[in-house]
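Re: the 173-residue chain
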Amino acid sequence: NAVEFVKNKDVEKGLILVGGESSHYLWDDARVANQIKEVVHQNSQVQWTLTTSRRTPETFVALLQGTQVNIVPFAETDSVWLREHYYSSGQIWVTPDSVSMVYEALSSGAMTFVFTLEKTGKKSRVRNGLAELLENGAVMQYETWKEKPTSQHKPREFDESSRVASIILERVA
């Protein structure tokens, strides 16, 4: 994860990262679209940008017609575009199927939120990791946010690359 922590981000800029089908969660176009619409409605002062992934179903984007979101398909982005949006966005919402997007959002220093999807029946390292992040308050799930949409979720300095590098350096020194 090459995303670095940035302090004092613009909370009036928001990024929405949409994944898709996975072995960890049951994808539901309508459920995710409705959650996005609610977040955008409750945060109408925020300038929202949404990007999809290779796994996002083609049927999904049509459900967001009329929503005040700038939609940028993944094919029109690259790592530079994504990093710039990670660094400038004060809040980032992510679908839970992509562990890399969740950890990159956290690493950027943004308030990080996770949409809700139904879990598959299998045990999952991805879901266990997300459960830990939710439990320790590093990320906030949609249902928790919906109870108090005006409350602020404080970002944490989440720098796993440096933490792991320090452990490795201690062991080899």
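The helical segments are 29-42, 79-88, 99-108, 125-135, 142-147, 160-172.
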